[in-house]
Amino acid sequence: MAETKNKEFPMDVRAKAVAALLENEKKYPTRYAASRAIGAEFGCSSRTLLSWVAAAERSGDGVPSSEGDDAAALVAAAEQARESGDTKRALALFEKVLTVEPKHVQALTMLARLRRDAGDADGSAETYRQLLQVRPKSFEALRAVGEYELQRGHREAAFPLLRQAFEIKPTDARTCRNTARLALEFDDLALAENAFAGMEEGDRFSGLKSIAARRLARQEYASALETFTELLKIRPGDLQLSLGIARALRNLREFDKARAVMRIIGSGDSPSLEVLREHGALLEATGDAEGALEKYRRAQQLAPEDAGLASVIARCLAKSGKAADARAQWQDRLEKDPRSTEALKALAGLAEKDGDTTEALALYRRVLDVDPDDHAVRVHVARRYLAPEDGARAEEEFRKALAAGYRKSGALVGLGGVLERSGRLEEAASLYAEAIETGDTAPRLRLALAAVQSKLKRYEDAEASYRGVLAIEATSVAALGGLARTLVARGKPADAVEFFLRALKAEPDNSALRLALARAYRMAGQFPAAYLQCDLLALKSETRADAEHERALCLQAEGRHSESFRLRKGRG
Fold first, then answer.
1. What secondary structure does DSSP assign to 169-221, as a single string?
2. Which residue of 100, 137, 459, 503 is surrounded by the most CB atoms within 10 Å?
3. Selection from 65, 141, 131 nearest residue 102 by Cα
4. Is 133 domain-assigned?
């Protein structure tokens, strides 16, 4: 065979030829014999191959020194070593590739796999992280690092990685399983449902059942009902699914349908605890407290220590007008568990109904001793008992709730009311506005804000607030009168007339509104209409003086000063 020059062979071919000779030379009597046979396989002479081998032995890594810094040659040699089972050498070569080309995808991938197979989980994960910096959408790397974090209990770190892996390859069973589990844990039900869809039938069914139960707990009744119904088609007669459907229908107030489902389930001679509870809940929801009580008591026979059943029985007793029995039930609960905030709040509510505010306040105080973070009770106490009498104490309680992050409408409005009564109007307005931003659409709240804005002479803002009330409740006399007075204050008496008239249509005997209307007519120069309102006011003895005073002002505004003077003198 004629000698062939080195330059005719790519560097990766040279590396593979060298690796083949070094691995197989023991099969031949001499290295020369091996070089002849193996060189023929690669199309080179024995002399050329032996020169390559000598260069590789000098470099110490199986790659000729002239090509020792070439990534392709190093990868070829590393792959040859890996295929032959020489893991240690393969690792060393892939590591060397990265010194030449740090972002070499194949080297990063194979190095991560080799480290994983060698039991170096930390090293493998770190290499996969390097791969993600080069290829952020690498499914293999995302799954590997996600599973690494999951195994170490770092669930929050694992979740976004596995979610991305699932989005890239939603058919991978292992990724589906891990993603679904974490999605349920982090309450991402849409993702969990998609992940369960890619799993085997049994796992998919149990997963979707868990999702439906979670939606029921989250009060997403329509979607829970849809999922339960679809699952029931797969497994007709499944009691848990039927009960889930009945609960969803009950909460959607589809009572007839819920009754039909419960009839299909049937109470029977010995119904289960869950069936009795759901039947009781349905009867309670439809106003049959006595019927519900009977079901709950039968359920309590199966679970005498169930605190939840004791609570619903007490609640039904109160609804049935058996306040004494309800109180006894809650007292019994409290004796068993003196720290039961549910029992304390229920007893406080019963005391309120009886008009025993001292007892109610004492019980609510006990609730806060047990659970200082129950800010709903704190706000209730501040509004119901403290605000009318002890503004400073009420303010303290409201501020405690708000400082703890309980920025709900009740706390905001309560503190706003205290501040308004103490003259701190700017802060009160700010709190009322924040309460509206929480989604509280109650007209009374917008009216309170509008009234404060008027006191602050922010008439443009007040007008907007009053109009906001009328958009919700078009016949609100308070809003109509408030808007009319605001328009007068803004120098628009003619515009105010319309709203005064609408308010008086709803309350024709409202003398304060009629007097304000007379003034608006006067300011708008509509004197005949103003005199008519004065005449109507003069018909009542209690408003006659106001009517004559307004009539005198109208005469003066018309320039009829002598008549105005005589009228005033006559009154004097």
1. -TT-HHHHHHHHHHHHHTT-HHHHHHHHHTS-HHHHHHHHHHHHHHHHHTT-H
2. 503
3. 131
4. no
Structure tokens at 480: 């109509």
Cβ–Cβ contacts within 10 Å for residue 16, how many? Answer: 18
Res. 569 pLDDT band, cuts 50 70 90 = confident
Going by the DSSP 8-state scheme, the letter that residue 543 receives in this structure is G
Separation of alpha carbons 547 and 304, rounded Å: 73
Q: Is residue 179 part of a domain?
A: no
Last residue of a domain, one of 46, 78, 101: 101
Measured in degrees and rounded to the nearest 5, phi and psi for residue 153 equal: 80, 10
* Residues 31, 70 within the same domain: yes
| Gap between the Cα atoms of 414 and 394, Å rounded | 8
Is the domain of 468 the same as that of 539?
no
* Residue range 396-432, pLDDT digits in tens: 989 998 998 888 888 999 999 999 999 999 999 999 9
The 10s digit of each residue's pLDDT in 486-542 is 999 999 999 999 999 999 999 999 999 999 999 999 999 999 999 999 999 999 899
Please tell me the distance from the alpha carbon of residue 221 to that of residue 481, in angstroms, as a whole number. 42
Q: At what angle do helices 477-489 and 493-506 cross, to 10 degrees?
A: 160
The tokens for 45 are 């002479």
Count of domains for the chain: 3
For 221-259, the DSSP string reads HHHHHHHHHHHHHHSTT-HHHHHHHHHHHHHTT-HHHHH
Residues with Cβ within 8 Å of 351's Cβ and at least 6 positions away in sequence, in order, are: 357, 359, 360, 363
Residue-number span of the structural domain to which 58 is assigned: 1-101
Does 305 reside within a domain?
Answer: no
Q: How far is CA 553 from CA 415, 542, 566, in A?
A: 42, 19, 12
* 94 and 51 belong to one structural domain: yes
Which residue, 69, 101, 133, sits at the end of a domain?
101
Those residues whose C-beta lies under 8 Å from the C-beta of residue 12, and which sit 6 or more positions away, are: 72, 73, 75, 76
Q: What is the Cα–Cα distance from 522 to 560, expressed in whole angstroms? A: 14
DSSP annotation string for 318-359: HHTT-HHHHHHHHHHHHHH-TT-HHHHHHHHHHHHHTT-HHH
| CATH number for 32 | 1.10.10.10
Are 536 and 468 part of one and the same domain?
Answer: no
**Residue for token digits 């709950």?**
296
Q: Would residue 328 count as lying in a domain?
A: no
